[in-house]
């Protein structure tokens, strides 16, 4: 198969997804979503504090707003809605339910929660362990993730995790000088596709199309005896 044929086969049509809810949210919150960077001090440590009720309620709020999150992610970053609901929201819900009942766990990280242009939405789950030992947590994002991070902060506020506990910061490229903390814009994940003799083409295509967009597929491994 030549290069031109491969590129033609892998050229998919654009999805026709409903994003009206996302557009309405962005319109209604245009002036509220932060647009600038604030030089917050390093969050000081505190004695262990448990947020059982708040984390449980936040997990419920995340489930209730799954459609809005998925529309925002598709509208702003072209991440498939199904992936957001089935992967990111599911992980966030399980994460906050876990930390709602968790006993003491020390986390010494001083790095703000960072949601870059390629970072998964599930990164926001880092808020839970950090908040139990920090006076406050800083979420640093870029313009394309500002809306979902702001929505997350709104839900936190609704369950009692107020703005003095969770602060939102916007940075253009997450490469901030000053106290010289360098944040990478998401971690690249690489993978290989393996098609065995027992695989059929339809199943293989379905599996690869349904996989996460966070991974970069580098190579297909196909045994010599597999029919073309």
Strand and helix map with partners:
Blueprint: H1 3-9, H2 20-28, H3 52-64, H4 66-77, H5 81-101, E1 113-115, H6 127-131, E2 137-141, H7 146-158, E3 166-170, E4 175-176, E5 181-182, E6 189-194, H8 201-209, E7 215-221
Parallel strand pairs: 1-2, 2-3, 6-7
Antiparallel strand pairs: 4-5
Helix pairs in contact: 2-4, 3-5, 3-7, 4-5
Description:
The protein is an alpha/beta fold. The chain is built from eight helices and seven strands. Strands 1-2-3 form a three-stranded parallel beta sheet. Helix 7 links the parallel strand 2 and strand 3 (166-170). The radius of gyration is 20 Å and the shape is globular.
Largest sheet: 3 strands, parallel
What gyration radius follows from the Cα positions, in whole Å?
20 Å
How many distinct beta strands? 7
Helical fraction equals 25-40%
Question: How many domains, in number, for the residues?
Answer: 2
| Annotated CATH homologous superfamily of the largest domain | Aldehyde Dehydrogenase, Chain A, domain 1
CATH topology of the largest domain: Aldehyde Dehydrogenase, Chain A, domain 1
Class of the largest domain, according to the CATH hierarchy? Alpha Beta
Biggest sheet: strand arrangement: 1-2-3
Oligomer: single chain
Distance between the termini: 11 Å
Mean pLDDT, nearest integer? Answer: 78
């Amino acid at each position: 198969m030549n290069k031109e044929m491969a590129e033609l086969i892998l050229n998919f049509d654009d999805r026709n997804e409903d994003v009206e809810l996302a557009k309405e949210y962005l319109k209604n919150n245009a002036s509220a979503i932060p647009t600038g960077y604030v030089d917050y001090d390093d969050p000081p440590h505190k004695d262990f504090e448990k947020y059982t009720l708040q984390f449980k309620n936040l997990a419920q709020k995340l489930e209730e707003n799954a459609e809005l999150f998925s529309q925002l992610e598709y509208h702003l970053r072209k991440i498939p809605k199904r992936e957001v609901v089935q992967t990111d929201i599911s992980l966030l819900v399980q994460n906050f339910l876990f930390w709602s009942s968790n006993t003491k766990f020390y986390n010494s990280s001083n790095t703000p929660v960072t949601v870059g242009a390629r970072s998964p939405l599930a990164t926001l789950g880092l808020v839970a362990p950090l908040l139990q030992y920090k006076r406050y947590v800083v979420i640093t994002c870029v313009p394309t993730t500002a809306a979902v991070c702001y929505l997350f902060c709104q839900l936190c506020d609704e369950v009692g995790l107020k703005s003095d506990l969770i602060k939102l910061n916007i940075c253009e490229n997450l490469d901030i000088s000053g106290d010289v903390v360098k944040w990478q814009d998401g971690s690249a994940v690489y993978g290989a596709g393996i098609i065995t003799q027992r695989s059929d083409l339809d199943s293989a295509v379905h599996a690869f199309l349904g996989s996460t967009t966070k991974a970069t597929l580098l190579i297909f491994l196909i045994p010599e005896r597999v029919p073309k």
